[in-house]
């Protein structure tokens, strides 16, 4: 079974613990032909096809079907679940952004430094309401 390539907020263990109650196995991965772009007015990113781009992220494995459904709901209809080939040849699902983006890449270090704690709180609130 394919894994899930995560490139934004889902690469943070703090977010995964709140959403899934655990941190699945993950390892670094890259995807050529993609970029992780900043999005207008929000702190999370979107991955879009860019011919000369390279997206940095993590390959997450060992998700249950229920966990995948939860992550699909978390990503909502703003993203298309898409099967891609990573640079190491593995196939993985990822969430491809469907809307417009900023003309620059998302800054993962800035997010971790300035936005992560409040983002985790928002995820906690979302998780409490999911399925109710």
UniProtKB/TrEMBL annotation:
One of its GO terms (molecular function) is transferase activity. Residues 4-100 form the Gamma-glutamylcyclotransferase AIG2-like domain. Keywords: Transferase. This is Putative gamma-glutamylcyclotransferase. Pfam families: GGACT.
């Amino acid at each position: 079974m394919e894994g899930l390539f995560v490139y934004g907020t889902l690469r943070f263990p703090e977010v995964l613990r709140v959403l899934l109650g655990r941190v699945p196995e993950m390892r670094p991965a890259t995807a050529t032909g993609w970029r992780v772009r900043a999005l207008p007015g929000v702190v999370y990113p979107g991955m879009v096809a860019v011919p000369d781009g390279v997206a940095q992220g993590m390959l997450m494995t060992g998700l249950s079907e229920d966990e995948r459904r939860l992550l699909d709901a978390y990503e909502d209809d703003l993203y298309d679940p898409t099967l891609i080939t990573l640079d190491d040849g593995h196939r993985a699902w990822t969430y491809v952004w469907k809307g417009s983006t900023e003309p620059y890449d998302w800054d993962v270090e800035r997010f971790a430094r300035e936005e992560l704690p409040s983002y985790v709180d928002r995820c906690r609130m979302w998780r409490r309401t999911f399925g109710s």
